[in-house]
Structure prediction request, 555 residues.
Amino acid sequence: MGALTRGGRACTAAALTAATAVLLSAAGLAAADGSGATRAVGGAVVLDEGEIDFTPRLADGKLELQIDDRSSGTTVVREPSQVVLHAPASSLQYTPDPVATVLGTTNMDSWQLGGWEAENIFAPEPGWNGSAAGGDTDVSLSGYKGPGDFGMATYTPEMDGEDAPAIPYLGSVESVQHTFTLPGDEERLLPIWQFTAEGVHRLTFTVTSGGSSDTETLAVVVGDDIDPSTVLPGDGSTPTDTPTGSATASPSPTAPAAHVIAEGHVDMAARPTDGALEFQLKEGTELNHAWYEPGEVVMHVRPAAKRKIPDGYAFLGTPGDPVWWLPLQQNAGIVWPGWNTTEYAKAELDGRVSFRLDSVQGPGNVAMFHNDAMGVPVVSLNSGDGLPDAHTLGAGTHSHFDWVFGAEGVYRTTFTVSATLADGTKVSDTETIAWVVGDDTDPSTVTPGEGDEPTVTPTATISESASVTPTATASPSATASDSPNASAPATDPGEAATGTGGGSSTGGGGSSGTSVSGGLASTGAQVGTIAGVAAAAVLMGGGAVLFVRRRRIAQ
Prediction:
């Protein structure tokens, strides 16, 4: 086989213009075929969710590589050259070191179909079916073009527990094998499909069995920078000068310009100011951050946060239904909200700081929680069972939890943050934070702070008797679980329990309203976080500890 070729990096696009709409209309796009699948340019079908199999099949004595699409509940046979496979932004996952080793790729996060998080995300589930070829089939990656590297390998939690190496099948890296044998009795081989970069990848497969062969090229769109419905299938060229996404509307002239926070570290913080308490947002790292008023910020929960509700989380809804999940650990490309009282010294307060969720306005429920030592969710805030709800932190504390939003749209969360100062003075501040979940609404067009959007799921309102005085609560213990997000909040420094979710730090000088740059936030607690999660996972007999043992942390 000749050397695999690698084309130029696909262009990143930001908005779908009116010209694009005309172009797609001229191409004769249909909204969907009979199975409900989205149509793309050239009459292609976009497969972005559900179970599919790549099946070498004998037809009239000739071998053909086809796709058995079961994403609609019934099987539809498709040609690879008429399909665009979409690995959405939510398929960006942790890469086990053994997979990176056998595929010659990075051990940083990569886009994966069939990875360990497959059951928790809405993405295609591609497999290989060898039972329709009449015997064993040789499957070759005979060509590859894309912005990064591609590979297929098998690696499971069970293999990790046995310290077994990953099993490679195909890879675009020259040192990796380009052919594997698909057994004739294999009805569903499920390797991990790994892509190391966003953009358009074109995979050319050649299948050979019994002297007959077939070569097909599959177009795969990785990430959400490019709209898969604008990509030509097969080996066609990808439009590089047509932006994708939603048309960007200009904010109303009367609406205050919002500072949109769509990724990276941000803390909801209590700060002392001239004898009072202010509730503000701290964006960035301990050494490089900016302070904002909640009324000038819109938090954007990107589509990459979309997950399926796992078993054991009935308070979020029905298992398998979609939610938008911001995990305790920081994930690249999505916002990482935390809590912060590091501006206060313990001697300045009589008791703890209370963060009370008074109301939620929006299309779904909002919940915040962590998992205890047995992996059972401990819910701190949940608009689904009535409000107000509150959680408390001691002075000098930095903490993270899991956040979940039940639907796409605009949310407004009103918090009252309160404390009692050492001299007995009670101080508090009430502010509203605007959130945009998903991409149906352009966050730059949303007015920060309070708004008048409808609330689909009403929540209980705060009673007149509800006190703003913080109530002491037991500090959450250090935990980890085998749930999709091993999670536990940080606790006060110096307490017996050791937090694993964020650690503690002291406040820095940070400028107000300045820009923040860089990658994943370093909050001064990375080492403590990793050690805490590892220790807790050992108590659970494995689970989350493998992420600590096998993953190298980028500094």
Summary: The first strand starts at residue 38 and ends at 39. The first helix runs from residue 18 to 26.
